[in-house]
Amino acid sequence: MEHREALELMAAEKYLLDEFPPALRDEFEEHMFGCRECALDVRTLSAFVEQSKKVLGAPAEVAARPTPEKPQRLAWLRPAFAVPLFAVLLAVIGYQALVERPALRKTVADLQRPAVLSSAYLSSGMARGEKETVVNATPGQPFVLFVDIPTSSRFASYQAEMLSPAGATLWSLNIPADVVESAHDSLPLRVAPATRQSGEFTLVVHGAVAGNAQGPEIARYAFNLQLH
Predict the structure, then answer these.
(1) How far is CA 115 from CA 65, 104, 121, 140, 146, in A?
(2) What whole-number distance in Å separates Cα of residue 179 and Cα of residue 157?
(3) What is the pLDDT of residues 113-166, one digit of tens each?
(4) What are the chain's domains?
(5) Which pairs with CB-CB distance under 8 Å and at least 24 residues apart come from 64-73?
(6) Rounded to an integer, what distance in angstroms lies between the CA atom of residue 228 and that of residue 226?
(7) How far is residue 205's CA from residue 222's CA, in Å, rounded to a whole number?
């Protein structure tokens, strides 16, 4: 499905209302996973529906009417509910238009823009007395660590964990063994700072056995992150 066709069919609305036949629904799902605009439209409408349900679920003095045996589709769009529902809709659309979409476009633009990233080399064989590794980075901007990971044929993969200065785990990453071996002692890791804190961070690498179960620690790298 092309994007123009999705717009003409009002595909996002029909997708949420389950009005598509199975084949057309599959086509739209395939398109949506590669189209940020359609994905955002579905999220916006989904949020509107969820908020609508909350509004309708609140107590309201509405004239009692016999309950039909079969609920009518889109009964929540009756005039009695039009004002609160459209108020919610405007709030959701306003938030999407003024906050979420500009932020997403900026994020995508930042990822596509060429940039020089701060980097440092971490070696497991650092000699005693060798100067401490310092990474100078910009707050909120990623940096690259080139890591020398000792390899072993008994590990199916490796697990890297980043520890904060306080020792808390900030994130973990599973790395296939063939990726480590093909890096030739210089595996590049792109790190997005989880905090805006400077200090002594530690990267710990464990060997992982079958099933990605964490094995023994095989390397530990300390570096001083300085945010300017």
Answers:
(1) 64, 19, 19, 14, 17
(2) 9
(3) 677 788 899 986 554 556 789 998 888 788 999 999 988 888 889 999 999 999
(4) 3-59+76-112 (no CATH), 118-227 (2.60.40.1930)
(5) 73/17
(6) 6
(7) 12
CA angle 54, 58, 61 (to 5 degrees): 140
CA distances in angstroms from 213 to 147, 157, 158, 187, listed in the order given: 22, 9, 10, 21
The answer to whether the pTM exceeds 0.85 is no
Scan for tokens 């919610």, then name that residue. 88
Distances (CA, A) of 125 to 115, 149, 194, 220: 30, 10, 27, 10
Strand order from edge to edge, sheet including 118-122: 118-122, 143-147, 187-191
CA dihedral 158, 173, 193, 125 (to 10 degrees): 0
- Give CA–CA dist 98/85, Å, rounded: 20
